[in-house]
Amino acid sequence: xSKKVLITGASSGIGRDIARVFDSYGCELILNARREDRLxxxxxxLNGSPRIICGDISGYDGASELYELTKDENIDxxxxxxGFGVWGDFTSTDLDKEIxxxxxxxxxxxxxFKLFLKDFKERNSGKxxxxxxxxxxxxxxxxxxxxxxxxxxxxxxxxxxxxxKESKSAVTVSALCPGPVDxxxxxxxxxxxxxxxxxxxxxxxxxxxxxxxxxxxxxPGTFMKFMSAVSKISPDGISAAVTANIxxxxxxxx
Length: 254
Known about the structure:
Elements: E1 4-7, H1 13-24, E2 28-33, H2 36-45, E3 51-54, H3 59-70, E4 77-80, H4 95-123, E5 127-131, H5 144-166, E6 172-176, E7 181-182, H6 185-189, E8 198-199, H7 200-213, E9 217-218, H8 222-233, H9 236-250
Parallel strand pairs: 1-2, 1-4, 2-3, 4-5, 5-6, 6-9, 7-8
């Protein structure tokens, strides 16, 4: 599979391992993240010779700058992966951090999604993976901003996927909705998972293979598929109570 792939948030976790999967498939990579040393380390471990674009892509300005740097590269696949979260009671979490979450998880994702999708649709080819989360399926007490941001990612992706189908476009868009994954996200968010986590390597390979198939909602793991089905029939009030109990158990003890 000879494709050109742009991956945001590529310096660690799922983004890093998605890069490794596409590299093993012989794809040409463009990798973005803030930490240049991590990107260089990743690039040196790959078989190919990826292009590195180091920088903060938060918000419209950062995202549109990345688009301008890559729009003439004939990107075939966009992996919209950059994002983070924080744990805490909504009245006590840092507002600046929450605005940063909104800018990166929503504004950046939305901007790159729209700009690249317009190009893909015009040439009638291409695939986009927006990284959401199982958090997208339920209210999220104690990680309220993160859960809300991932719900936005999922619903936007589903809406656009329907538009593409109605227009008979060959372009496909997918939302990746993993459950607990063993990545640096946990440390940044200040949580640990009380349930078993999937490896980011497994999630990355599963996500890439489903993206290639054109799967709209990608949920790695049998248990998480079951939980997503349960969430669809559970009232929001019950889901919120269950999620709150889970989140309280995830807080890292100081």
